[in-house]
């Protein structure tokens, strides 16, 4: 990619400026580079800052942005070299000191959780730094590289508010206008440091002359904004709203499978009903019609999972697709329930979930499915903050029996297993209290740099399936709707669109 | 009631009803009377007798939601006020007929300067500039004994007596031909009452104003009035000159009224009293409205409607048993 | 005859926004047993406050109150509650003096419930007796105050006061909000009750003719102070204090044959807040001299006839 | 008057301090850990603890409270957001104009619409005019602002294209949100206006005004309305508080970068300092409006002015 | 309390007021429907039907179905239990606490009153909905917590209303009479003061029940309050706004029921106020 040439209508008197107005559904809150960014900033981020590097797409390959190359000098020790002609939009030259500064700041300010995998980092030469990682797992380096936004130390220190409103990055865009909470506008500088187009990574393109982000939090307003032509592209529209534009010639609806998938966890703490009761776990899993969830919760825009995660990743084994993954079987479920020692309607389970619209529906549907099997269920729904609290807080016993959550990864399927089932990260076994050495072994093997073979991944997959500790439910599709003339949209490895990469056709 | 050709204001067959919570209250029933130039008519009666209603009806300022003038006419120098349209009536209010209200504490607008409140009525009825109207107002204030410089003050800065004087000044500002004074002194202390009464008398004499004075204080009546109408349950039950009424009260109710007030200059060991209670105005007895409480009542009293008939000259009374009452009790009542 | 209530130098001050309000200021008088003592004066002169302070509804600021010779100024708690048996009050406003949510029966019975160890039946009987006494028909037993007219309400108030069988009752303008015909009924009732039970009344009013009718002795108050006190006829025949005189002559008479011009006291009642020493009437008094601005003493100028005016002797030729 | 205003302003200090303490304590006990939010769901317990330590969450309550109060009231520093690390003070100052413009506009709309509606209803009591006005008012109080907001957008932005649907810019951007946010208050004001007008219309001085020969309209607007204004102004003042509160919702619907939307984001992120700062700022501005209302009282009602000036009110006698 | 009232008179007047009775009838019908709905409705409020999602009104589903194919009518009727009980219980919470606070302040006056009033000043200077949101975010979401948050935030204004009423009653002579016959203080408060001071509080509490539904909707809007799947009307309304254009029945019907409740309770409250204060009538 990377063709910055916008196919503007040649007949026009002068070169028409291409303005792309993008509606985003969350407030970035700040434009600062080292602050942990929410979904609001994620979209804007690529227009403003560059990373050392990033995966080309979900499960893709690592592309250097500022990083020219890296090499492994010892196990878990890497030397990263950046281009020696990088400069930011204010003209500050970027060298290894700036990189060291940026990594240090990122770590200090907690801008990315991935920084915790860095054991130490130091400058090696003017344009080379040495990174020592502390964990042995596949994709570790990718995570670190793709989490480091690089800015000039000088520029950062000159900014009064840590670049919250006066950011200076190294992309082809410059901030033109910022009304916090409302509008962020960038203008192309035509002075990007990377003049060699062949060395540009996918997301480094700078197509529109002006990109203006508008924050529109109310979902109904997003559609209205498109219809009243006050935005050109709507990011993250609900499938309900998106459907309105599907048959409309004046708009293009972009569908993209999300890298974030929905999972269900069973409480396996020692005092849980599920503990030492495999038939019961199976009964619950078998009660759930994943296809039905797709239909009900996301109007069919998604797919049931055949593993804990989705098939987007390179380490997903295609043969799983046709196998049974504790799939819906109401008859068997009833039998399993009996086998587990419960009479119909004897057992009541608590389903905990956050309050996102999708999982809100999933929870209600699961409640219904369980009821059909003969298990009563109550729903405990918390806002994101409380949900995280109850999820992590293991000082006492869990407040739930079934937890619904989502997990995403940008590189490997096994990353998700590692995130949830690595007992080293949790004081109480895994995220759902599993204390199982075998599982730990499989997780470790599948994630190890010298592991991660098809067999290792298969072992993990089948073991998880047999033990029924948790289950992947479905993946869903995200919708971006653009007005006619927007040809292609590009997404990053976390499935956020990068508007600077948008390609337009003549109708725009 | 015989017509007096010099009658300045005459009221004929006035009937006013209120509706409240679905019940119809017969507040004024067939009231007729005349008012002469420069004379004062006293309307005397107990609470709820309908005195205020009569006065408000004359000015057509009854609450239009609940009150209804059923019939009657009010002739002011030959014009029937009830036939005027609202705009013409407005011209008459304040200019030709004005009213002093029962409670001086509440009759003044608390957020307007007293000077402005008086000036308002002046400027409504004469084609003078507001400045001039204010000058008139200030003069009126001085007339009632309030220093001119206090016209910029608000009602709350005045005492009760002064407020009543302001109200009177307001009522008199346009030299009305008829003044309706509704219990102008009931809310006041005796010493203040004396001041106000004296002032009313003075103004009346100077300006030849006709006045209707509503009160239930017979002392005030004796002090100020020329004629007296005793009202009971919305009817005039006795009418006459002050002398006639005080010397020879004829209706049993009037008699009772006189007997019930302790006298300053005389000792009785026990007050005569009227037994029972005033009738429920929504359910008035048939015939003589007083008969349930009357010690002279005969069966006829409840069988026919009783009319107001002259006993002597202009002295009218609504009772069929006057003749039958013993002479002794009669004189007893008048011993004041 | 021993006085039932004696008041010595009683003061009651209120804190007000602008200063100390001398509602009752150094009042001394006594009330004879079985008699009615009238207290008159203009609105706000402290009549009600005096009555309420005597029966301990308000705490006095200073001075003493004696009941049947016993100093009750500082009684508290149970002792005070016992005293309530003997001293009662009837209020001016029959509308606000009855709890709108209590029936006639409940109102009259409440004091009995509070004190007497009576059975329910006894209380019922006692209520019957009181209702008959004050002339309330038995059918109104379960009626609420708003269903009653002013006269009947006042009877209920009287009944409530009587149910404890008090000796002494403060009547705070019990008839001034009633119509004349009803007023006469109530006055007669009070009189009958007094005769029957040998009650002692302190009768507060501003209606001179009423006070003349009911009282044996009379006290005239002006701005918190007692200016004159004497037997009733004496006061009406030979008023000594200029204020009393003015008050009497300001009352319009119903005697149309002897109409006199009403006498006017110029000016109005001044504020009782932080008053200056001396005669408080001086400002409105046509006889005022410098000596009037000195504190005045209540002196017995004629037998049983006290007056607080330094010029009273001279003006009345005594 | 000036002294009164100064006194009131001084009194605001403890009130606002109280608000700060109150909100701080409330937020202190909020479950849901910002550290968990900041670090996301894959944080380890160790990391969480480190962050808590860093953010000072492990300090005792009082220490944190005192430190917070000192920062807010001595250094005018609301701290920095846990999430964005931005200075909350800067952010609040930046967002304030939008929120206030919106709230003031809301107040204007509700007054301009509600008062005439209520007065009209009162004047035509129990007639059609009254019924229709009150039906409008009832509809107003029963429609949630966000629902109305979206409906207005559909009509005026999408269908008619008259007004912008969201965002900020000129005054036209504020119109729809202001209408949506103020309808409920307009309705309340209409009801209040109606009932206080009804009360006033029954007053004697209104009859007096009629008796002077004043025209109906003048009586209503010159005599009645000014007297009915106190409760109306009171409601209008508290409506300002409601408008401020309403911005929490309406700013989100209309994507306005005011304090309300700032606060909602913060609540969901457990960004306590932001929530505290926003609430304190809104409370302070509400306090000022209440002060303004109190001062306005003095201009509406001379009696209140007199009170402020320390001249006691006319005494009321029973 | 058996001696309870002049309420008889109030009730009599109230019964005569057609609008008030109509309002009360609406409210009672809603309560009744919410109680019997499980027995009379064809569908239960949680029964999902994936083949009938987001259907508009029809004979089968008079109010249509929601995004999970549940019958909206059943949900609304059943949801009345939550909505109405949020209103009623939060009023009970607010009333019980504000009665204590208000009567202490009103009856004892003086310093205690001053302190209480200053505290209320402080709480009241936080605009109501903000306060509710703040309290609610402290408690978290859920039915009981929402009730508490809404109720607690209302205490200051209820306490003030009660205090004002008590201040009025304090001037009444029947209190003096009670004191004169030696009634003890608690008796005076509970027998003579409170019952007579409750009327304005009850009136505003009545009207306020309706308001809680709007507050609940607002709380849901900001992600607090009772969370769906609870078929609380405010939450349904808030959740349905995503469908406001394509499937308006998801917001219109809960909105309508809120409006009916508000209408009914306000009509009743207006009537109650008129009945308590007959002066106001004419
Ligand atoms: N607005 C009204 N609505 C209904 N009834 C009314 C109204 N005003 C007066 N009444 C009734 O009409 C009757 C006559 O009342 P009015 O005020 O004329 O009596 P009054 O003689 O002036 O009494 P008072 O001496 O108390 O002033 C009374 O029964 C009263 O209750
Ligand atoms: N509780 C109180 N607090 C403050 N001031 C009071 C109080 N009660 C009475 N006052 C004041 O004390 C003075 C005397 O009042 P009081 O009620 O005793 O007068 P009164 O002679 O009974 O008047 P009225 O004839 O109007 O009943 C008045 O100025 C009054 O305002
Ligand atoms: Mg009258
Ligand atoms: Mg008194």
From TrEMBL, chain B:
It comes from the Bacteria. PROSITE patterns: ABC_TRANSPORTER_1, ABC_TRANSPORTER_2. InterPro entries: AAA+_ATPase, ABC_Ni/Peptide_Import, ABC_transporter-like_ATP-bd, ABC_transporter-like_CS, Oligopep_ABC_C, P-loop_NTPase. GO terms for molecular function: ATP binding. Its main location: membrane. Residues 9-258 form the ABC transporter domain. It is a peripheral membrane protein. It holds the Pfam family oligo_HPY. Keywords: ATP-binding, Cell membrane, Membrane, Nucleotide-binding, Transport. It is found in: Cell inner membrane. Belongs to the ABC transporter superfamily. This is ABC transporter ATP-binding protein. It comes from Sphaerochaeta associata.
UniProtKB/TrEMBL annotation, chain C:
Pfam families: ABC_tran, oligo_HPY. This is ATP-binding cassette domain-containing protein. PROSITE patterns: ABC_TRANSPORTER_2. It comes from Sphaerochaeta associata. The keyword Repeat does not apply. One of its GO terms (molecular function) is ATP binding. The keyword ATP-binding applies. It comes from the Bacteria. Residues 5-248 form the ABC transporter domain. InterPro entries: AAA+_ATPase, ABC_transp_ATP-bind, ABC_transporter-like_ATP-bd, Oligopep_ABC_C, P-loop_NTPase. Keywords: ATP-binding, Nucleotide-binding, Transport. Coiled coil: none annotated.
Automatic annotation (TrEMBL), chain D:
It is a multi-pass membrane protein. PROSITE patterns: ABC_TM1. The keyword Transmembrane helix applies. The keyword Membrane applies. The chain crosses the membrane at residues 9-30, 100-123, 135-158, 170-190, 279-300. InterPro entries: BPD_transp_1_N, MetI-like, MetI-like_sf. It comes from the Bacteria. Keywords: Cell membrane, Membrane, Transmembrane, Transmembrane helix, Transport. Residues 96-297 form the ABC transmembrane type-1 domain. Signal peptide: none annotated. It is found in: Cell membrane. PANTHER family: DIPEPTIDE TRANSPORT SYSTEM PERMEASE PROTEIN DPPB-RELATED (PTHR43163). Belongs to the binding-protein-dependent transport system permease family. This is ABC transporter permease. It comes from Sphaerochaeta associata.
Automatic annotation (TrEMBL), chain E:
The keyword Transmembrane helix applies. It comes from the Bacteria. The keyword Protein biosynthesis does not apply. InterPro entries: BP-dependent_transpt_permease, MetI-like, MetI-like_sf, OppC_N. PROSITE patterns: ABC_TM1. It is a multi-pass membrane protein. It is found in: Cell membrane. Pfam families: BPD_transp_1, OppC_N. Gene3D superfamilies: MetI-like. Keywords: Cell membrane, Membrane, Transmembrane, Transmembrane helix, Transport. The chain crosses the membrane at residues 21-41, 82-107, 119-140, 146-166, 186-202, 247-268. Residues 80-269 form the ABC transmembrane type-1 domain. PANTHER family: D,D-DIPEPTIDE TRANSPORT SYSTEM PERMEASE PROTEIN DDPC-RELATED (PTHR43386:SF1), OLIGOPEPTIDE TRANSPORT SYSTEM PERMEASE PROTEIN APPC (PTHR43386). Belongs to the binding-protein-dependent transport system permease family. This is ABC transporter permease. It comes from Sphaerochaeta associata. The lineage of its organism: Bacteria, Pseudomonadati, Spirochaetota, Spirochaetia, Spirochaetales.
């Amino acid at each position: 990619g990377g063709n910055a040439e916008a196919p503007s209508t040649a007949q026009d008197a002068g070169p028409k400026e291409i303005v792309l107005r993008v509606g985003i559904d969350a407030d970035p809150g700040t434009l600062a580079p080292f602050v942990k960014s929410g979904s609001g900033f994620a979209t804007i981020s690529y227009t403003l800052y560059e990373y050392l590097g990033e995966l080309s797409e979900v499960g893709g390959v690592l592309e250097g942005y500022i990083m020219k190359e890296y090499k492994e000098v010892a196990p878990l020790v890497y030397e990263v070299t950046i281009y020696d002609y990088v400069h930011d939009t204010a003209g500050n030259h970027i060298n290894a000191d700036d990189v060291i500064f940026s990594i240090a700041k990122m770590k200090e300010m907690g801008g990315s959780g991935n920084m915790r995998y860095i054991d130490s980092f130091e400058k090696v030469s003017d344009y080379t730094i040495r990174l020592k990682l502390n964990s042995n797992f596949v994709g570790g380096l990718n995570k670190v590289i793709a989490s480091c936004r690089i800015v000039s130390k000088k520029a950062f220190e000159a900014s009064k508010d840590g670049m919250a409103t006066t950011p200076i990055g190294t992309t082809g865009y410059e901030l033109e206008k910022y009304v916090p909470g409302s509008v962020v506008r960038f203008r192309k500088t035509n002075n990007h440091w990377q003049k060699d187009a062949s060395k540009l990574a996918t997301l480094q393109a700078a197509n529109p002359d002006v990109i203006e982000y508008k924050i529109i939090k109310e979902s109904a307003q997003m559609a209205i904004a498109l219809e009243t032509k006050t935005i050109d592209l709507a990011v993250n529209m609900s499938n309900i709203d998106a459907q309105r534009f599907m048959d409309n010639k004046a708009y293009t609806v972009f569908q993209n499978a999300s890298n974030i998938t929905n999972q269900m966890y069973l409480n396996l703490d020692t005092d849980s009903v599920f503990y030492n009761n495999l038939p019961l776990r199976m009964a619950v899993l078998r009660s759930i019609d994943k296809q039905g969830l797709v239909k009900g919760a996301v109007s069919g825009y998604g797919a049931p999972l055949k593993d804990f995660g989705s098939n987007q990743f390179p380490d997903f084994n295609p043969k799983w697709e046709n196998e049974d993954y504790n799939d819906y079987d109401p008859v068997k479920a009833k039998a399993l329930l009996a086998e587990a020692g419960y009479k119909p309607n004897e057992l009541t389970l608590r389903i905990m979930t956050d309050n996102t619209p999708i999982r809100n529906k999933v929870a209600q549907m699961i409640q219904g499915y369980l009821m059909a099997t003969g298990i009563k269920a109550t729903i405990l729904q918390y806002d994101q903050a409380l949900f995280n609290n109850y999820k992590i807080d293991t000082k006492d016993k869990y407040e739930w029996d079934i937890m619904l959550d989502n997990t995403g990864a940008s590189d490997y399927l096994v990353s998700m297993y590692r995130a949830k089932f690595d007992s080293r990260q949790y004081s109480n076994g895994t995220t759902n209290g599993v204390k199982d050495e075998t599982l730990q072994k499989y997780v470790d093997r599948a994630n190890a740099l010298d592991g991660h073979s098809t067999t290792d991944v298969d072992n993990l997959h089948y073991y998880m399936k047999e033990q029924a500790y948790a289950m992947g439910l479905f993946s869903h599709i995200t919708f971006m709707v653009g007005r006619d003339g927007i040809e292609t949209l590009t997404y990053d490895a976390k499935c956020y669109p990068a508007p600077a990469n948008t390609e337009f056709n003549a109708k725009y | 009631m015989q017509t007096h050709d010099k009658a300045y204001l005459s009221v004929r067959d006035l009937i006013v009803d209120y509706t409240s919570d679905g019940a119809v209250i017969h507040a004024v029933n067939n009231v007729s009377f005349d008012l002469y130039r420069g004379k004062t008519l006293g309307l005397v009666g107990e609470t709820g007798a309908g005195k205020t209603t009569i006065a408000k009806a004359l000015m057509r300022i009854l609450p239009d939601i609940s009150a209804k003038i059923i019939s009657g006419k009010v002739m002011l120098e030959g014009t029937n006020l009830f036939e005027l349209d609202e705009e013409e009536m407005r011209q008459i209010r304040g200019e030709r007929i004005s009213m002093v209200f029962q409670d001086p504490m509440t009759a003044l607008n608390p957020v307007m300067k007293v000077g402005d409140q008086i000036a308002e009525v002046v400027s409504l009825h004469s084609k003078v500039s507001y400045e001039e109207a204010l000058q008139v107002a200030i003069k009126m204030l001085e007339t009632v004994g309030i220093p001119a410089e206090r016209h910029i003050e608000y009602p709350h800065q005045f005492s009760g007596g002064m407020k009543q004087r302001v109200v009177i000044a307001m009522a008199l500002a346009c030299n009305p031909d008829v003044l309706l004074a509704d219990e102008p002194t009931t809310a006041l202390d005796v010493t203040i009452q004396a001041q106000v009464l004296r002032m009313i008398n003075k103004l009346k004499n100077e300006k030849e104003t006709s006045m209707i004075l509503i009160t239930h204080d017979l002392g005030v009546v004796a002090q100020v009035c020329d004629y007296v109408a005793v009202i009971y349950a919305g009817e005039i039950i006795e009418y006459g000159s002050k002398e006639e009424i005080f010397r020879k009260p004829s209706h049993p109710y009037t008699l009772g009224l006189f007997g019930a007030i302790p006298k300053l200059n005389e000792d009785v060991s026990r007050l005569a009293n009227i037994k029972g209670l005033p009738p429920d105005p929504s359910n008035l007895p048939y015939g003589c409205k007083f008969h349930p409480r009357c010690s002279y009542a005969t069966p006829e009293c409840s069988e026919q409607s009783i009319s107001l008939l002259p006993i002597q000259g202009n002295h009218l009374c609504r009772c069929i048993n006057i003749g039958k009452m013993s002479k002794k009790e009669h004189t007893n009542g008048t011993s004041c | 005859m021993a006085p039932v209530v004696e008041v010595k130098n009683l003061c009651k001050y209120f804190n007000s926004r602008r200063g100390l309000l001398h509602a009752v200021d150094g009042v001394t008088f006594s009330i004879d047993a079985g008699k009615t003592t009238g207290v008159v004066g203009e609105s706000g002169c402290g009549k009600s406050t005096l009555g309420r302070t005597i029966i301990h509804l308000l705490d006095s600021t200073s001075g003493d109150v004696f009941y049947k010779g016993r100093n009750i100024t500082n009684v508290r708690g149970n002792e005070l509650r016992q005293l309530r048996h003997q001293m009662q009050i009837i209020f001016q406003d029959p509308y606000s003096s009855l709890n709108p949510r209590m029936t006639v029966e409940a109102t009259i019975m409440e004091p009995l419930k509070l004190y007497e160890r009576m059975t329910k039946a006894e209380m019922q009987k006692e209520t019957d007796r009181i209702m008959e006494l004050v002339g309330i028909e038995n059918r109104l037993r379960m009626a609420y105050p708003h269903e009653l007219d002013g006269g009947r309400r006042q009877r209920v108030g009287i009944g409530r006061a009587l149910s404890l069988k008090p000796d002494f009752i403060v009547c705070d303008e019990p008839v001034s909000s009633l119509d004349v015909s009803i007023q006469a009924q109530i006055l007669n009732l009070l009189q009958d009750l007094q005769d029957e039970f040998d009650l002692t009344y302190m009768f507060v009013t501003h209606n001179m003719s009423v006070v003349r009718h009911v009282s044996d002795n009379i006290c005239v108050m002006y701005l918190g102070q007692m200016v004159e006190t004497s037997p009733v006829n004496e006061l009406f025949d030979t008023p000594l204090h200029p204020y009393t005189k003015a008050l009497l002559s300001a009352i319009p008479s119903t005697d149309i044959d002897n109409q006199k011009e009403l006498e006017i006291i110029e000016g109005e009642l001044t504020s009782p807040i932080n008053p200056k020493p001396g005669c408080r009437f001086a400002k409105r008094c046509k006889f005022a001299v410098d000596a009037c601005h000195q504190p005045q003493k209540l002196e017995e100028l004629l037998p049983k006839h006290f007056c607080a005016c330094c010029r009273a002797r001279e003006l009345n030729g005594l | 008057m000036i002294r009164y205003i100064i006194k009131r302003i001084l009194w605001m200090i403890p009130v606002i301090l109280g608000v700060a303490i109150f909100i701080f304590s409330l937020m202190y006990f909020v479950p849901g850990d910002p550290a968990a939010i900041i670090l996301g769901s894959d944080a380890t317990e160790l990391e969480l603890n480190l962050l808590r330590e860093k953010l000072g969450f492990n300090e005792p309550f009082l220490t944190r409270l005192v430190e917070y109060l000192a920062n807010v009231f001595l250094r005018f520093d609301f701290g920095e957001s846990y999430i964005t690390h931005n200075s909350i003070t800067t952010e609040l100052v930046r967002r304030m104009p939008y929120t206030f413009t919106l709230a003031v506009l809301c107040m204007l709309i509700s007054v301009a619409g509600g008062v005439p509606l209520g007065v009209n209803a009162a004047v035509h009591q129990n007639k059609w005019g009254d019924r229709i006005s009150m039906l409008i008012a009832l509809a107003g109080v029963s429609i949630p602002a966000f629902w109305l907001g979206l409906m207005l957008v559909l009509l005026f932005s999408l269908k008619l294209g008259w007004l912008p649907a969201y965002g900020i810019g000129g005054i036209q951007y504020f119109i729809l949100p202001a209408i949506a946010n103020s309808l409920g208050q307009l309705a309340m004001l209409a009801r209040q206006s109606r009932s206080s007008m009804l009360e006033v219309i029954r007053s004697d001085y209104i009859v007096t005004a009629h008796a002077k020969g004043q025209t109906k309209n003048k009586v209503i607007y010159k005599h009645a309305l000014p007297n009915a204004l106190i409760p109306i102004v009171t409601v209008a003042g508290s409506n300002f508080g409601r408008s401020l509160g309403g911005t929490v919702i309406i700013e989100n619907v209309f994507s306005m970068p005011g304090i309300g939307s700032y606060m909602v984001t913060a609540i969901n992120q457990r960004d306590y300092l932001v929530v505290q700062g926003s609430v304190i700022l809104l409370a302070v501005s509400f306090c000022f409006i209440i002060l303004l209302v109190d001062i306005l009282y003095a201009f509406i009602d001379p009696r209140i002015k007199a009170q402020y000036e320390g001249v006691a009110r006319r005494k009321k006698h029973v | 309390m058996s001696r309870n009232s002049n309420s008889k008179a109030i009730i009599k007047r109230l019964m005569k007021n057609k609008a008030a009775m109509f309002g009360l009838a609406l409210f009672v019908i809603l309560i009744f429907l919410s109680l019997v709905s499980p027995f009379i409705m064809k569908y239960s409020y949680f029964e999902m039907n994936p083949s009938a999602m987001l259907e508009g009104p029809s004979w089968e589903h008079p109010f249509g179905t929601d995004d999970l194919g549940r019958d909206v009518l059943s949900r609304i009727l059943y949801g009345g239990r939550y909505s109405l009980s949020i209103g009623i219980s939060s009023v009970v919470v607010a009333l019980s606490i504000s009665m204590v606070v208000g009567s202490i302040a009103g009856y004892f006056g003086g310093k205690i009153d001053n302190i209480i009033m200053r505290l209320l000043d402080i709480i009241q200077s936080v605009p109501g909905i903000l306060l509710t949101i703040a309290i609610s975010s402290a408690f978290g979401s859920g039915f009981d917590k929402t009730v508490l948050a809404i109720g607690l935030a209302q205490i200051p204004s209820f306490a003030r209303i009660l205090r004002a009423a008590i201040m009025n009653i304090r001037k009444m002579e029947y209190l003096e009479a009670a004191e004169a016959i030696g009634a003890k203080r608690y008796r005076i408060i509970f027998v003579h003061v409170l019952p007579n001071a409750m009327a304005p509080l009850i009136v505003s509490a009545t009207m306020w029940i309706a308001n809680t539904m709007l507050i609940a909707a607002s709380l849901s809007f900001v992600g607090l309050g009772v969370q769906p799947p609870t078929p609380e009307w405010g939450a349904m309304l808030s959740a349905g706004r995503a469908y406001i254009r394509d499937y308006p029945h998801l917001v219109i019907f809960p909105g309508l029921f809120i409006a009916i409740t508000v209408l009914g309770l306000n009509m009743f409250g207006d009537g109650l106020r008129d009945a308590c204060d007959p002066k106001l009538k004419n």
